[in-house]
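Good morning C.,

I know you're traveling, so I'll keep this short. The sequence:
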Amino acid sequence: MKISIFDKLSILSDSAKYDVSCSSSGVEEQKKYGGIGATENSGICHTFTSDGRCVSLLKVLLTNFCIYDCAYCINRASNDTKRVAFSPRELADLTINFYKRNYIEGLFLSSGIIHNEDHTMELLINTLKILRYEHGFDGYIHLKLIPGASKELIEVACALASRVSSNIELPSSKGLKLLAPQKTKNQLLEPLKQARDISLEKSAKPIPMSTQMIIGATSDSDFDILKTTSVLYNKALLKRVYYSAYVPVNEGKNLPVLKNKMPPIQREHRLYQADWLLRFYGFSYTELFTQEIQHLDTDIDPKTFWALNNLHLFPVDVNKVSKEILIRIPGIGIRGALKIIQARRFKTLSIDDLKQLKISIKRAKYFIISKGTYQKEVPMYKENIKQVLLAPKKIIQPTLFDENYSIFTGEL
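The tokens, ready to paste straight into the viewer:
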């Protein structure tokens, strides 16, 4: 029986949803078919551009056929699932039709490996050629490079795409050997190295590159994960690393059993925060851990986690220290640090002044001296400060007889 193009779209967009390396979040709405505003929403996701705009993308696989049998993947070769594939023409025409109807502004295209790596890469390239050359589409295209494809094909793909990525899947070679034995770390990194070198050879602006790591599928620690991330950033292979909490879509002896089958979302969140410290706050991954502490604390953000483990560096005087030190204080971001530096040119700043600057005093006050004074409410010990920071806020319910409460305005 011939399968319709929209049935293919439903299957192949669903298969693509576990790839977060386009920074996307799908939106599901219950709409009655044929009603006003009802549209085909399969595969529509959202991502953010470098200037902060939110754009809609068609996020889809070319095919869910795959010669690999990775234990964690919904499309693994041994899974009994319905297999379909777009032709390059079908997918290009579908994309341009969605674009003309203003459903999408771009395409996020990946694929399972059908027949072999070069064959799959050629199909992806043909899709992009139809879009770029026949339809004249100059919009955003994020293309997943196929590890193992030839350098010549990688070069063509980079010339056609706006952004490329290649998922390294797991943080360590040990994890890959356990759950994806057909793949190696070098093989997965090779497309990114080739894309970087091609840009350098042609003296062109480097094409933005990203990757994804699955979190919680193996015993790799947060230290291991951020070490891998740091190496990738330092080698100029990536603009972004995306972290994807392990979702148990398969069963297997080497796969972890999650409590209540819940993905480690909070751990994923803390890794994103730590990644931000690496990229924008001048932190090294080695600063966040010790030989005894190999995981971030899921209860507190990584900067506070670091500060509590390094209390010998605090408190610091916000009226004297440099920007580099200010941005390491919990509750003070880069914009906050710049505000402090500008304001302290005119006066010595107090806690009230910091509040006026919108600094998060709830966290910062345990790590700073302001106008020569330091808070005396909580002893300067890790557990004491952490306990106060994690304490729930007390909600005071005023009554009509409270002298500090206005019965006319309802305000304290």
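Safe travels,
E.
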